[in-house]
Amino acid sequence: MSKSLLIIGAGGHGQVVKEVAEALGYDKIAFLDDNSVEAIGKIANSKSFVQEYQAAFVGIGNNKFRNELLQRLEQEGYEIPVLLHPTAYISKTAVIGKGAVVEPKAIVNANSRVGVGCIISVGAIVDHDVVLEDCVHVNAGAICKAGSFVAKETKLEAGQVVKGY
What we know:
Blueprint: E1 4-8, H1 12-23, E2 28-32, E3 55-58, H2 63-76, E4 83-84, E5 89-90, E6 95-96, E7 101-102, E8 107-108, E9 113-114, E10 119-120, E11 125-126, E12 131-132, E13 137-138, E14 143-144, E15 149-150, E16 155-156, E17 161-162
């Protein structure tokens, strides 16, 4: 059975999302983007593709805009998947919100909660008992130490460490 995914945003993050989706078996993937020749349409036209693509994912790094688009796509009737790269470690007790992506070699440890639309970039570490509110971006190699909290729409820079307990 074919798995289709419409990715909003064809830039760098959108390309990473595409590769994660391919690793998960999505075989029909297309982009909507206002500034890319690779895109099959503009972001404003997302509703017109809902019959052709069962799921949609926001591949845009801007946390606030990603949050707005996620809500819109859900209202339009798209399934919003969670994309977990096969090389990422996800604890069986972790909870990951829809529209979140966990990229290659990232870790989400025991009892952590990753909100809707979060980006856990390549090699990032979300240790145990961490709470990431919606649309947080834990950039490449950043570390959320045990028991830490990151507020909605925050971007942690590459290599940044957030203290916990």
